[in-house]
Amino acid sequence: MDWHSKSREEIFSQLETDEQGLSSEEAERRLEEYGENRIEDDESTSMLSIFISQFQDNLIYLLMLAGLLSIAVGFLPGQEPKYTETGIIFLILFANGVFGFIQDYRAEKSIEALKKMSSPNSTVKRDGEKREVDSTRLVP
């Protein structure tokens, strides 16, 4: 909608309000009709899925392939399996996964804590008076 190009009267008409703002009854009716003004949270990510996500990257796949090739080449005629190299590659991959998991898990918990802490209020005009209301109670 092109709010900037409309007159105040047109905007009030489209929003079904006036300079006095919504009545408390109308605000409650709209709250029931449209629901609370909040973003639906996704289910919190499980620890296992955070850990598994550490290994879902093309570079990680490449390193896993290098580790597998390192051991597979050792089984060719005239070669010896290189368990040390393979072990080091997979140890580094595992350590990278653990460190990445710790960082992502802490970040996830920090975001959850911030969401719980923030409860913004908004100034609205209801029944001709300015009021502070919880932002979840804003209505269209």
Describe the structure.
It is a single chain. By secondary structure, the chain is mainly α. The chain has a domain of 71 residues. 55% of the residues lie in helices and 9% in strands. It has five helices and two strands, in the order H-H-H-H-H-E-E. A two-stranded antiparallel ribbon has the order 1-2. A hairpin with a 2-residue loop joins strand 1 and strand 2. Helix 3 crosses helix 5 and helix 4 runs antiparallel to helix 5. The longest helix has 35 residues. The radius of gyration is 29 Å and the shape is rod-shaped. It starts with 7 loop residues before the first helix and ends in a 6-residue tail after the last strand.
